[in-house]
Amino acid sequence: MKVKRDRPLSIIEVRAAAGDPRLGWLSADGWTVPVALGRGGIIANKREGDGGTPRGVFHPRQLWWRADRHQRPTTFLPTRPIRREDAWCEDPADRHYNQPIRLDRAQGGDRLTREDHLYDFIIEIDHNAAPRVAGRGSAVFLHLARPNFSPTAGCVSMTKASMLRLLRRMSPQTRIIIG
Fold first, then answer.
1. pTM over the 0.90 mark
2. Which fold has domain 11-178?
3. Is the preceding omega at residue 147 within 30 degrees of 0, hence cis?
4. How does the average pLDDT of the chain come out, rounded?
5. Is the dihedral angle over the CA atoms 78, 51, 127, 164 positive or is it negative?
């Protein structure tokens, strides 16, 4: 028999903190944790490069993780280890905009293998995914926060402990309500 803690979460809510729109709170099933938001706060009309965290209802697509640094976490989400050549296309003029791409060593781009630990765990969400609209924002993830919880470029970031706790209960059907 599955107990409540074994079931996937149906809803996760992310809200801005009072007094600083770049900080917020993530709440799910009776627990709340601090998060860092985009430098532009939560915004309704997301545009590429604006630094805003998009307002809306989203679903997680999959977990990307650094298998060279961590064991595969427990989750209901599909998982994909991050490889050295993995990157994300943030160029609105590219046909692969807001999609994962593979780069060789000579190419630039938003590589997922960062020296810091921000992308050790990345929850890909379906922001601007179907349909993809050029310029409406790319690479909006849930990922790990900097130690000082400084703002992101538009993502929602949290501590590793909070991320692992969230992953244990997250599924593709979980609704992520930002705003």
1. yes
2. L,D-transpeptidase catalytic domain-like (2.40.440)
3. no
4. 94
5. positive
